[in-house]
Design goal:
Oligomer: single chain
Distance between the termini: 50 Å
Helix content: 10-25%
Number of strands: 27
Shape: globular
Radius of gyration: 27 Å
Strand content: 25-35%
Number of domains: 3
Length: 482
């Protein structure tokens, strides 16, 4: 199945020609050179044969097919309802068709990571599914339940009831140990034709500008990822799981030899959270920043663009408690170089809560090491979700207090503070005002809004006019209602 962006989640790895170097040996030194080459030629079929069969025999039984099913209701209506002239008189929300139910099926792959039936796949493979069926390599089928579906990493963890039987599994390897040029195998079920194995290499590491998930830090491979391979295994020659194949760069839906896999270290952290209780609690840095450009590097005294320049530090957050300030540059995390905020977020996210990260920091022109104890994002203030019902332009909106934990849960800027709009009732004053979920109510009639209680206090019925300030991403909007 396809990923919702311009990336199509699937799988493939190009073969490697090991014989290209042989012709270069001839003609370098006449007969003596030729004799030297002849003496090194293989003398048996075993010496000629190159095979990944032993790795495949170990890994393939742990790769499964996943079939998801959901029923959707659709309204069939006449195209004239989309005509602007018709909408002008009857409105845009008019539906005069008969609702019909339609079954949607999707196909993907998954990997057994525990013998008791724990399986990891992509979230987009099972999204909104009402029934999930897992088919093993021996053709047995099981109904699966979802332990975790994390859209921010595009990873989902499923469980099947094995009735006490221990299934073949793949151990999750340390994805920080792989290198560009390493041979990898890709296993999945492309186009539903059945389990397929392909080979190739790691083309690049730490790709952070892919745009598939919130935590962008992908392994790039020349794998031919096709429909049905999403959630399949990228395996090293040691038989360990390197990553979960997730997407390809494509303009027409086909493979162009640029595929992306979610690193095994991120997979491991999500699986551990799912097994521990199903709630993913990520460490929180308590700071945000920007990449160091060439111009910034010169001004900071760096010999090259590297690191993340902090431009916000949350008061009393982990970074602030460790002594980090706005203007500091984080160069590394646990000895691993950092080049952009996406890489920094990935490194912090894959460390457990309670871990003490060792940061390499440039502060006021001097390099130093900083120990950063990682904690979960706090829910302070409490969210206090409230539906506004007073006679004001905001009536019909559900709002809540932003905290680092609530912001992370909503997928908004964890540094944001104030009152956020969560939902809007259809046809309510708030909806007619043009509010959107995710908007932050920053002020009403000149009063700064810092929490729901403050907002309720200023929303008194009967005011002659309302001046409302809204923050929408990078914009500040002012609305006056009489």
């Amino acid at each position: 199945m396809a990923h919702p962006l311009s990336f199509v989640p699937r799988l493939r790895l190009a073969g490697i020609c090991l014989f290209m170097a042989l012709p270069l040996c001839f003609g370098l030194g006449g007969q003596a050179a030729a004799e030297s080459v002849v003496k090194q030629l293989p003398v048996s079929q075993a010496e000629v044969q190159l095979s990944f069969a032993s790795v495949v025999k170990t890994a393939a039984p742990a790769v499964v097919n996943i079939y998801s099913r959901r029923v959707v209701r659709e309204v069939q209506r006449s195209p004239m309802f989309d005509d602007p002239f018709f909408q002008r008189f009857f409105g845009q929300g008019l539906d005069m068709g008969m609702p019909r139910e339609r079954v949607q099926n999707s196909l993907g792959s998954g990997v057994i990571v525990r013998g008791d039936g724990v399986i990891v796949t992509n979230t987009h493979v099972i999204k909104d599914s009402q029934q999930i069926t897992v088919a093993l390599s021996d053709r047995r089928e099981f109904e699966a339940k979802v332990l975790v579906a994390d859209s921010r990493t595009d990873l989902a963890v499923l469980r099947i009831d094995t009735k006490g039987e221990s299934l073949p599994r793949l151990d999750i390897g340390d994805s920080d140990q792989i290198e560009v040029g390493d041979i990898v195998l890709a296993i999945g079920n492309p186009f539903g034709v059945g389990q397929t194995v392909t080979s190739g290499i790691i083309s690049a590491l730490a790709r952070t500008q892919v745009g598939v998930s919130d935590y962008q830090f992908f392994i790039q491979t020349d794998a031919a990822i096709n429909p049905g391979n999403s959630g399949g295994a990228l395996v090293g020659l040691d038989g360990r799981l390197v990553g979960i194949n997730s997407a390809i760069y494509s303009r027409d839906g086909g493979s162009n030899g640029i595929g992306f896999a979610i690193p095994g270290n991120m997979v491991k952290s999500v699986v551990e959270a799912a097994i521990a209780g199903g709630r993913i609690v990520r460490p929180w840095l308590g700071a945000t920043g920007q990449p160091v450009t060439a111009d910034l590097a010169t001004g900071l005294g760096l010999d090259r663009p590297t690191g993340v320049l902090l431009n916000q530090v949350y008061p009393a957050g982990p970074a602030a408690r460790a002594g980090l300030r706005v203007g500091d540059v984080i160069l590394s995390v646990d000895g691993k170089d950092i080049f952009d905020p996406e890489a920094l977020n990935f490194r912090i996210a894959t460390l457990g809560v309670g871990h003490v990260a060792q940061l390499g920091v440039l502060s006021q022109g001097s390099r130093k090491d900083v120990s950063l104890p990682l904690s979960a994002a706090p829910e302070e203030p409490r969210r206090e979700v409230t539906r506004l019902t007073s006679g004001s332009p905001l009536a019909g909106a559900s709002v809540g207090n932003l905290s680092p934990a609530f912001a992370d849960e909503l997928g908004v800027d964890v540094m944001a503070q104030g009152v956020i709009v969560l939902e809007l009732g259809q046809g309510t004053p708030a909806a007619r005002l043009g509010l959107r979920p995710g908007d932050i109510v920053a002020g009403v009639n000149g009063k700064r809004i810092d929490k729901v209680a403050t907002l309720l206090a200023v929303l008194k019925p009967g005011a002659p006019q309302w001046q409302i300030t809204i923050r929408r991403q990078d914009q500040t909007l002012n609305v006056v209602v009489r």
